[in-house]
Structure formats: structure tokens, C-alpha cells
Design brief:
63% of the residues lie in helices and 6% in strands. Strands 3-2-1-4 form a 4-stranded mixed beta sheet, with helices on both faces. It is found in: Cell membrane. InterPro entries: FlhB (IPR006136), T3SS_substrate_exporter (IPR006135), T3SS_substrate_exporter_C (IPR029025).
Length: 380
């Protein structure tokens, strides 16, 4: 089990932030063996695919340089011209293979871990210049792993090379009796197939190294319980800071709620412990009354005070006040089960307004037994 520098076991899975930070630092899984196999296979495949053209170009270079006239031999400038011409022909001949190797050498590293450019990897690290750190890396578990992989590659290549040479011994001996042109082409074919088989043998090393690198990278990112807690505090904020933010949010919400109380049609109270402010405006398309404000104790007192100041009708209905308080959120319509009870309250309020305006008689006092469903009733 991996341990941190503090000695604690890394038992927790890495968080998304830990993975992002590691990627920004360039700490991702990479397999050198996968890159080596891809490049060697591409080189061997390119040699087989373009070997014929390469052999023909090589023969052409040999004919050009071995069939010189007396005038060219005595000309001091001829050697430079022949060298330049031979170099151009050789470059054009190997160009397809070089392009293939360039593409594979770029694609192979990003096959595991994806494309990544990290500036932190380019920064000089003076800790690497410390001889003690170098000795420690030489005798580390990672160094031992690399040594074992190198020895395994040596054994695999040795075994494959011996098998290939044994199988191709007749073809190799036959090359000595072939014409020069045929021998060159045949030699390139033998070399290409031999390189391809030896590269294919390295697939065994890469197949073991890729999952090992993934496991090692994941294991390195694991965290201790304390690291998870510290990261949570850093990302989410300290508890006292979050508490202060929630307090400010509550205060802002209360200020908005209190500012809406003067727009209410009625304030229903407990009479002292609960207070809810309702508004009903059918012209706004509302199907039911809207809860503008609610609160208990001190908040309920402030709602009543603002209601008195702005001449909002205040009615006492303990059961209805408690039912609305517990069943309805701010700026939400009351539930359907309270429609009938609230409708009686609003009807009474509108009748009071008509009476005060001299347009009707004084309404009968509001009944205490308003129709409140049992599932919405709160006894205390």
C-alpha cells in the first residue's frame, strides 16, 4: 500500500482536482516500451513497403559512382557534384520511411495519456543536480523496474533473433550466389522481415508495461484521508467562511422578503410565533395566492410591524398560519388543499376594504374553524 511523505497510507481514490493538477504538471501515464514498439514496427514496415524503391535507388547511386569517365576522374569539382547528387538521391529514397517514422513518433506517445504540453516540465529542477537524489533514484524501485524491463527486452530480442536467423539461414546463404542487383533487394527484404519479427516480439513487453504504467500513475495519485479533507477545505472553503456566506445570503433574502411585505393583501398570524404574508393578484395570471413573506418569532414580529406601518390587513388564524408556513416556500403559490381556507380569508379582507371605503356593510367576523386538510395541519 502506498504511503505519503507523512507516513499515512494512501487509501483514497484521487479526486478530479487531483487528476487535473497532475495533468497540468505533466504527471500522466506514459509507456516508453509502447513508443519503442510503435517506432520499430513502423520502421520495419516502412522498410518492407519502400525497400524495393530504396534498393533501386541504391543501385542507381552505385552505377553512377562506379561508372566514371576519365574526364570526371581528373576533374576536381566532379567529386563534389557526384557527392551532392548521390546525397539527393539517397534522401529522396529514404524520405517515405523518415516521414512514416516522424508521424509514428508523434502519435505513439499520445496513444497513452493523450496529447499534453506542460510548461512545468521545461522548467529546470535543481533538485536533479543533487548527487544524493541521483543515487537514490539509481537504487529506487523504479530503477529496478527499468532494469528488469531492459533485461526482458534483451532476452526477447535474443530469442526472436535466433529463431529468425535459424529460419532464414538458407536465404542468407543463397544471397552470396545471387547477382548483385537481386542480392541487394533480397538483403533488404530479409532485414525488413527480421526487424519486423523482432519488433513484434517487443509487443509482449509493451503489453505488460502499459497496464503497469497505468497502475503506477493511478497509485501515485492516490490520497490520504487528510489530503482529501484538506483539498475539500481549499476547494469548498473553510467552515467559518461558508457559514458567513450563508449568513449573508440569509440576510439578503430576508431584506428582499421584508421589502415585499407592503405589497401583501393580508398577513395571517399565530398570533405571536408565526406570520405569513399573502398576495393575490388575478390580473398577473396567478391561479392562487402567492406567499411573499414568512417567519417565526422575531421575523414574525418584524412582518407584523411592517404590515401595521403600511396598513396591511392582519388577521389571526393560528392553524392556517402554521399550515401555510410549513407547506409553502417563498414566492410560491399556496397548495391546492388551502385554497378554500385562504379564499375565505381573502374574501373577508376584500369585504373589510369595501366597508372602510363606505361601499358595503361590515362583514361578519372570520370563523376560527377554517377548512384545513389534516395532512397540512400543524398542531404546534
Amino acid at each position: 500500500m502506498a504511503e505519503s511523505e507523512s507516513g499515512q497510507d494512501k487509501t483514497e481514490e484521487p479526486t478530479d482536482k487531483r487528476k487535473r493538477d497532475a495533468r497540468e504538471k505533466g504527471e500522466i501515464a506514459r509507456s516508453k516500451e509502447l513508443n519503442t514498439v510503435a517506432v520499430t514496427l513502423a520502421g520495419a514496415g516502412g522498410l518492407l513497403a519502400f525497400g524495393g524503391h530504396l534498393a533501386e535507388t541504391l543501385l542507381a547511386i552505385m552505377r553512377m559512382n562506379f561508372s566514371l569517365t576519365r574526364d570526371f576522374i581528373t576533374d576536381e569539382r566532379a567529386m563534389g557534384a557526384f557527392l551532392l547528387a548521390s546525397g539527393k538521391m539517397a534522401i529522396w529514397a529514404v524520405q517515405p520511411i523518415l516521414i512514416l517514422l516522424f508521424v509514428i513518433s508523434f502519435v505513439a506517445p499520445i496513444a497513452l495519456g493523450g496529447f499534453l504540453f506542460s510548461g512545468s516540465l521545461l522548467q529546470p529542477k535543481f533538485s536533479r543536480m543533487n548527487p544524493l537524489s541521483g543515487v537514490k533514484r539509481m537504487f529506487s524501485m523504479n530503477a529496478l523496474t527499468e532494469l528488469l524491463k531492459a533485461f526482458a527486452k534483451f532476452l526477447v530480442i535474443l530469442v526472436v533473433a535466433v529463431v529468425v536467423l535459424v529460419n532464414d539461414r538458407q536465404a542468407l546463404l543463397a544471397i552470396a550466389n545471387e547477382p548483385l542487383e537481386q542480392a541487394i533487394i533480397h538483403s533488404l527484404q530479409v532485414v525488413g522481415w527480421s526487424a519486423l519479427w523482432m519488433s513484434a516480439g517487443l509487443l509482449l513487453i509493451a503489453a505488460a508495461d502499459v497496464p503497469f504504467q497505468l497502475w503506477q500513475a493511478h497509485n501515485k495519485l492516490k490520497m490520504t484521508k487528510q489530503e482529501v479533507k484538506d483539498e475539500y477545505k481549499d476547494s469548498e472553503g473553510k467552515p467559518e467562511v461558508k457559514q458567513r456566506i450563508r449568513q449573508l445570503q440569509r440576510e439578503a433574502s430576508q431584506r428582499r422578503m421584508m421589502a415585499a411585505v407592503p405589497e401583501a393583501d393580508v398577513i395571517i398570524t399565530n398570533p405571536t410565533h408565526y406570520a405569513v404574508a399573502l398576495q393575490y393578484d388575478p390580473e398577473k395570471g396567478g391561479a392562487a395566492p402567492l406567499l411573499l413573506a414568512k417567519g417565526t418569532d422575531f421575523i414574525a414580529l418584524k412582518i407584523r410591524e411592517i404590515g401595521v406601518e403600511h396598513k396591511v390587513q392582519i388577521l389571526e388564524s393560528p392553524a392556517l398560519a402554521r399550515a401555510i408556513y410549513y407547506s409553502t416556500e417563498l414566492e410560491q403559490e399556496i397548495p391546492a388543499g388551502l385554497y378554500l381556507a385562504v379564499a375565505q380569508v381573502l374574501a373577508y379582507v376584500f369585504q373589510i376594504r369595501q366597508y372602510r371605503a363606505g361601499k358595503g356593510k361590515r362583514p361578519e367576523p372570520l370563523k376560527d374553524d377554517l377548512p384545513i386538510p389534516s395532512d397540512l395541519r400543524r398542531d404546534s
